[in-house]
Write a structure and sequence with these properties.
With about 425 residues, this protein is α/β, with parallel strands linked by helices. Bound molecules: pyridoxal-5'-phosphate (PLP). Pyridoxal-5'-phosphate binds next to helix 10.
């Protein structure tokens, strides 16, 4: 995403810092990329947990992208943004391992296709009187993520029904009067593209072998997992081989079934990662000195922290950083650490999953400069929290013509206190 320094400084004066800035053009380009992978019998969903802003959901709806939702409120947000409900076709899929809060009632009331990740969910559906179609999420025993906590397939993953239990679970579905219309597996979005290819191909093969056991099957979902290159802004993920792969998978599945089978993919990050930046202000630059406990470092202290963007603190994720000089002046490059305002030593943006401090060669900013964290659109605002009672930062949306709109305001103390009550309960 290309940024105009003067405009960024002007936005910062208008809405304060930190703030999120979305670029509609970048988002639309990513949507177009995915549309080129889909078409005849191949349907894309947006894993909306990556970025549930109404503005983004509307773009998806306009582009014919369906939704993968993971909570009752995600379903309602998608519906509120204009996505159709119902299961014919299943434009919104509910994927989870557990029903909680309003999820079960929202699924039932809106005719949403449930994609069940645990057999217990069948009992919940049965007890609620549901006799409709279901999708089963399968853990195929393999998968990949960029770190262990992102593994979505394999023995360490909590997601889905373990593949060798699938027949048993399918029988439970049948005896509960429901039918399996879709099999699903999401095997993660690690950075290794080769591995993704092999895994997807293998997954389609396993699903093809299962088809004879699922006479009601209409669709197969190969999940999300199209990676985004966070390190290299110019890198383009090689999508044409994926297009061929999805087409090949579909042919194989249709041949095995002897009827048309819809193939689905559900990217999250690929759609939105590059479409948003988090803009913070540098408060000061300070240094620690080396001693017997370790090496000193130069810290650029910014006003954004892991309450805004948690990925580095949570997974050691890398985000490109750009410094915007407030006076347009030159800044010399040195290894620095970028840290935030929170009362946690882990509130550091330049780190990895092993080291707390991974100093990065960056222009050493001055107080008042802006520091931009790139590729923050996926699991950015969506994962932001109210830790330290700071309140969420505002989101701005830049249209193709350069006009800018505030799409969520900065949260206030009143927002934070809104759910606090003093009500006696009978128990
Ligand atoms: C999170 C998730 C996705 C999207 O993953 P990305 O890595 O963002 O592409 C897709 N499907 C399911 C079921 C998910 O939980």
């Amino acid at each position: 995403m290309q940024l105009d320094p003067a405009r960024l400084l002007s936005f910062a004066r208008t809405v304060g810092t930190p703030f999120w800035l979305y670029d509609a053009t970048t988002l639309r380009q990513r949507i177009t990329d995915i549309q080129q992978l889909t078409g005849e019998g191949i349907q894309a969903r947006f894993a909306m947990k990556a970025c549930p802003a109404t503005k983004v959901l509307r773009e998806m709806q306009a582009a014919g992208i369906w939704i993968d939702a993971v909570s009752g409120n995600e379903i309602l947000r998608a519906e509120n943004a204009g996505h159709a409900v119902g299961n014919n076709p299943p434009t919104i899929l509910y994927t989870s391992d557990v029903f909680r809060d309003n999820a079960l009632s929202v699924v039932l009331e809106n005719g949403i296709l449930p994609n069940i990740g645990s057999a217990g969910m069948i009992s919940d559906l049965r007890a609620a009187g549901y006799r409709g179609p279901v999708s089963i999420r399968v853990n195929p025993g393999f998968g990949h993520g960029h770190v262990n906590s992102c593994d979505t397939g394999g023995p360490s993953s909590k997601h889905g029904v373990w593949f060798s239990d699938l027949q048993t679970v399918a029988k439970q579905v049948e005896s509960a009067g429901m039918k399996v219309v879709m099999l699903h597996s999401h095997i993660g979005s690690g950075p290794r593209f080769e591995e993704l290819h092999e895994n997807l191909e293998r997954l389609a093969g396993e699903f093809a072998n299962l088809l004879p056991h699922f006479p009601d099957l209409e669709g197969v979902s190969l999940g999300g997992g199209i990676p985004h290159n966070y390190r290299d802004a110019g890198a383009q993920i090689p999508l044409p081989p994926l297009k061929a792969l999805f087409a090949r998978c579909r042919e194989r599945l249709c041949a095995a079934a002897g009827r048309p089978i819809r193939v689905e993919i559900e990217p999250g990050r690929y759609f939105v990662a590059s479409a948003c930046v988090l803009v913070s202000r540098v408060a000061e630059v300070k240094t620690t000195r080396s001693n017997e406990k370790g090496a000193g470092a130069k810290f650029a202290m910014v006003d954004a922290g892991f309450v805004d963007l948690v990925r580095p603190a949570m997974y050691g994720s890398f985000h490109r950083i750009e410094v915007v000089a407030h006076d347009g002046g030159a800044r010399s490059v040195e290894p620095i650490v970028v840290a935030g305002p929170l009362c946690e030593s882990g509130d550091v943006f330049t780190r990895d999953d092993a080291e707390l401090l991974v100093p990065r060669d960056l222009p050493v900013p001055e107080a008042g400069d802006l520091l931009v964290l790139h590729d923050a659109g996926a699991y950015g605002y969506a994962m932001s929290s109210n830790y330290n009672s700071i309140g969420k930062a505002p989101q701005l949306w830049m249209e193709a013509d350069g006009s800018v709109e505030l799409i969520s305001r900065r949260e206030t103390l009143e927002d934070l206190l809104k759910a606090e009550v003093s009500e006696p309960i009978e128990a």
